Amino acid sequence: MWSVVKSVLAALLGVQSNQKREEDFSSGKPAAYLVTGVVITLLFVLLLIFLAMFAAR
Amino acid sequence: MRSRWRWLMAISLAASGAQAQANGWNMPVGVTDVSSDIYGLHMTIFWICVVIGVVVFGAMFYSLFRYRHSKGAKAAHFHEHTSVEVLWTAIPILILVGMAVPATATLKNMYDSSDAELDVMITGQQWRWRYEYLGEDVAFTSNMSTPRTQISGEEARGEHYLLEVDEPLVLPINRKVRFLMTSDDVIHSWWVPDLAVKQDTIPGFINENWVKINEPGIYRGQCAELCGIDHGFMPVVVHAVEEEEFENWLADRKEAAEQEAMGVDREWEMDELVERGESVYQSICSSCHQAEGQGAPPAFPALANNEQLISDVDWHLDKVINGVSGAAMPAFRSTLNPVELAAVVTYSRNAWGNDTGDVVQPSEVAELIAQ
To answer: Which residue numbers delimit the Cytochrome c domain (chain B) (predicted)?
Structure first.
């Protein structure tokens, strides 16, 4: 699970090591990456909304 | 080693030279807090870009030179370097966020037009600006005053060629003034660089902006949105004055407006109307219908010896008051007051060989407008 989150975060930043990428592609289910990706993106959007509301106060 | 420092010296000298030249090329610092904030942001971001450019291109040119083929350089073959990749992703993020924080603060301030002490409605019209001091019963149009002879080259250009008006917008310093901006016809843009205001005026919409001017002076600008044939001939002039002077000016304008309102009811002599009408004609009508009423057919019909105009005073009044839909002729019912309308119609019915002898009284025009 933690490994999936780390890979998704690395994807958001756009930097991933080759070794980790090969691990991801040899084990784990694609659905887990998709769901984690959507959840983390939503969290990121919520964080931005929160920051914007905080700044607009 | 020493020669490398000499390079740096040369670069910094060139940079300071650029700064010295900036007076003619750069944006103005302006005369409001917002305009100097914008200038500060512009310069900060400019220098960040300069540093990035020097570092990136410096590294590139240094590598190209130092590891050149003729010196036997061999290319390194490697696929990835995670920590360097993280670094060159993180640094731009930090730079961008670092620029966004002060920029957003300035933007927020620019959009906060609350607590204004004076409201001025700015209306764009082809091709002039109308200013209305809301709640003060003071309104006027501001027309370019550069003579047409200067534009056509028959006369030498003046100091403020195309940037001068008959009546400037007068504003007090040290007071927050809110602008409510709209347009009667097409999209215009009210732009005064020294005030850091460039706002589109859009028919059917009201945009807001505000200024708080720190220094008295005359600030000039232009329409910044292509709005038709005379787009270049509708300048903005703002006259910023001390608060006391502003109050006096406003009181004078109010009194003049009251006098004008009283003038509607009295009977005017033909000579008075013709004299008044000539000045209205030259500032409002002559840009299209030309100084001698000869027009510029087919877009702008001639008024001199125009059979329909000469024979039908009601038709003439209707066109001036209500405009011609689908043509360039705007409706002047709200731009000009009844005295000005009556004067300009009387003038054009008795000028350039149109010797009708007709006199149109301001009271008649007021009745037509009220209908």
So the answer is: 272-352
Contact A15 B86 (CB under 8 A): yes
Chain A interface disruption, residue of B85, B87, B94, B106, most A CBs within 10 A:
B85
Compute the distance between CA of residue B264 and CA of residue B340 in angstroms, rounded to an integer.
Answer: 10
Q: Which two tokens stand for residue B10?
A: 């040369």
| Cα B273 to chain centroid, rounded | 32
Query: Cβ atoms within 10 A of the Cβ of B288, count?
Result: 19
Based on the number of CB atoms within 10 Å of its own CB, is B240 exposed (0-12), middle (13-18) or buried (19 or more)? buried
Nearest Cα to B167, choosing from B136, B213, B132? B132
Q: How many domains does chain A have?
A: 1
| Residue to test with chain B: of A6, A13, A15, most B Cβ within 10 A | A15
Please write the tens of the pLDDT for every residue from A17-45: 888 888 888 877 888 889 999 999 999 99
For residue B258, how many other CB atoms are within 10 A of its CB? 11
| CATH annotation of B118-261 | 2.60.40.420
| Rounded-to-integer distance, Cα B146 and Cα B165, Å | 7
A and B: number of Cβ contacts within 8 A: 15
Return the structure tokens found at B237. Answer: 């002039």
Give CATH for domain B265-370: 1.10.760.10
Alpha-helical (H) ranges within chain B are 2-25, 33-66, 82-111, 148-151, 243-263, 270-280, 286-289, 307-311, 313-322, 338-348, 362-370
Q: Which residues of A fall within a CB distance of 8 Å from B104?
A: 55
Give the C-alpha separation, B169 to B140, whole Å.
9
DSSP B203: B
The tens digit of pLDDT for each residue in B144-193 reads 988 888 888 888 888 999 999 989 999 999 999 999 999 988 999 999 99
Q: Is B225 left (phi over 0), alpha (psi -120 to 50) or beta?
A: beta
- Compute and round to an integer the Cα radius of gyration of chain A: 14
Across the interface, of B79, B85, B108, the residue whose CB is closest to A15 is B85
Q: Is A50 exposed, middle or buried (0-12, 13-18, 19+ CB in 10 A)?
A: exposed
* Residues shown for chain B: 371
Note the pTM of the prediction, 2 decimals. 0.71
Residue of A14, A17, A55 with shortest CB distance to B89: A14
Of B79, B80, B104, the CB nearest to A55: B104
